[in-house]
Amino acid sequence: MVDALEVVLLLPLAFMSGAWAAVGLAEIAMGRVVLGPPRGWSVREPKQLGWSRVVAGVSMGLYSLALGLQAANATLFMGTTWSRLVLLPLMLVFIGAMIFGATRLRRNPSGDGTLDLRP
């Protein structure tokens, strides 16, 4: 049975993953960077950043779903090495998407590698 603590820990992760994917979808649809430096982006860069955020959000959502299912069914190898190996590909996809997004954000139009938030 799922304890209240598990719900309290997994629900914010699920909400955050949905918000992160929604930001990515907004960037893909608008072709503009929603969270980041506001000027100097090429046409492709906001869409690449948006796709990386969508992939990160979806993989984080699937990760929280898998954790919730493992917590609900204690016989599903909970806390064993097997459970960590099952979730490892989702975590690697999430980390890869975040690294790709960070490299897109690092390419700052100001050229010094910092986030320039001036209008």
Report on the architecture of this protein.
- The protein has 119 residues and is mainly alpha-helical.
- It has one domain (4-32, 44-106).
- 69% of the residues lie in helices and 0% in strands.
Write a brief structural summary.
With 119 residues, this protein is an all-alpha fold. The protein has helices spanning 4-30, 44-72, 81-106.
What key attributes describe this structure?
119 residues; mainly alpha; 3 helices
Q: DSSP strand (E) fraction? A: under 5%
Please give the count of helices.
Answer: 3
Average of pLDDT: 77
Q: What number of domains? A: 1
Radius of gyration: 17 Å
**Percentage of helical residues?**
55-70%
For the largest beta-sheet, the strand count, sense and barrel status come to: none
